Amino acid sequence: MNLCFYTSSSKKYSYAETIFSGNTNTNTNTNINLIHKSFDFKELQTEDPQENLLFKLNQIPHVPSSCVFIEDSTFHIDALNGFPSLYTKYILSSLGVQGIINLLAGKDNRKCYFINHLALRTENNKVVFFSGLTRGLSISHSLLEHSNETGWSDLWQILKVTDDGSFYCQLTEEHRNLFNQQNSNTDAYQLLRDHLTEIAL
């Protein structure tokens, strides 16, 4: 099957490639051909992630014999009552990561988490939602001086693993898998892959 990922982020697409190329389930005949479709969406001002995903899905033209999916990540800071959530992109463009650090000046609780939301539209126009949660992170007191390019956004310059203080983007794949297991984290991309494998489209 053809699976089109509509996103303007090449890094998110590269990550999705690693997830779907790792599908080694030989018990089904699922053959997923992941296709990147670069797309800049109009944004909806809402606090409902599913409403926002549906708004974006409606901007995508129907592609015959293909399933399409989109992704939206929300970033939440405990000390700010879950802010900025869906407004992360705006906060990054206006305040930047240093501005986020400044918002937490004097606060002891620096814990934060991500939720990545996916919406799949099947060939028969059925929409299925998936959500993954990443906990166990905290916001650093200063920027990572020599950031690599593995992160999806500037936020990766200020995210630390709460337990040991290392920057999240510096974890090896092995350590990241262990970190996710220890924090019972889930990944919406993997949930989507498993769903498509299960129903054997």
Give your account of this protein's structure:
- By secondary structure, the chain is an alpha/beta fold.
- The chain is 29% helix and 25% strand.
- It is built from 6 helices and 7 strands.
- Strands 1, 2, 3, 4, 5, 6 and 7 form a 7-stranded mixed sheet that branches.
- Strand 1, helix 1 and strand 2 form a beta-alpha-beta unit.
- The chain is globular and about 55 Å long.
- The termini are close together.
- About 3% of the residues have low confidence.
Short description:
With 201 residues, the protein is α/β, with parallel strands linked by helices. It has helices spanning 10-21, 49-57, 88-94, 96-103, 173-182, 188-199, and strands at residues 2-6, 33-37, 66-77, 84-85, 111-121, 127-139, 159-161. Strand 3 and strand 4 (84-85) form a beta hairpin.
Descriptive keywords:
single chain, 201 residues, seven-stranded mixed beta sheet, alpha/beta, 7 strands
Strand content: 25-35%
Could you tell me the mean pLDDT? 88
* β-strand number: 7
Largest β sheet strand count, sense and barrel closure: 7 strands, mixed
Helicity, as a percent range? 25-40%
Count of DSSP helices? Answer: 6
| Poorly predicted sequence stretches spanning 5 or more consecutive residues | 24-29
Series of secondary-structure elements, N-terminal to C-terminal: EHEHEEHHEEEHH
How far the N terminus sits from the C terminus, by CA atoms, comes to: 7 Å
